[in-house]
Design goal:
The protein has three helices and seven strands, in the order H-E-E-E-H-E-E-H-E-E. The chain has 136 residues and is of the alpha+beta class. Strands 2-1-4-5-3-6-7 form a seven-stranded antiparallel beta sheet, sandwiched between helices.
């Protein structure tokens, strides 16, 4: 995958971020607010900044356009992940987790956010991007 190996400080940033799309607002480890269905899985994913490496805005916009094209026909909603002043666009999509993970891998993402009904939101790292131990 070639992605970033999340340190404790990077993992902490993921967990402190707020993820929103449509009426849904969530933080990792907390139940989502605004979920309409208790039984549907929703995956939040992005195509920006592959491997945790900052790319130019124009490049990120093109990748998000391609992701939207790949999601055509799926029930989805635009949103963002935000920590303070830093925000990255994302799309919340209702689809099988395996397909969402394949898309995230295609766009070289480190992780996705999984919302499973009213359970606590989970941060799922893609293979090769598991957190490492040590000081952040």
């Amino acid at each position: 995958m070639g992605g970033l190996r999340p340190t404790p400080s990077i993992l902490r940033a993921y967990c402190l971020s707020t993820y929103t799309a449509g009426s849904i607002t969530v933080r990792i480890g907390r139940p989502p607010r605004g979920m309409c269905s208790r039984h549907a899985d929703i995956v939040m994913l992005s195509a920006c900044n592959p491997g945790g490496r900052r790319k130019a805005d124009g490049w990120n916009e093109r990748m998000m356009w391609q992701l939207r094209r790949d999601l055509a026909g799926a029930e989805s909603c635009e949103g963002e992940g935000r920590l303070g002043r830093v925000a990255e666009p994302l799309i919340a999509v209702r689809m099988p987790l395996a397909r969402a993970l394949r898309l995230a891998a295609r766009y070289r993402q480190n992780a996705v956010v999984l919302l499973r009904g009213t359970q606590k939101a989970r941060l799922l790292f893609l293979p090769g991007c598991e957190p490492i131990s040590g000081s952040g």
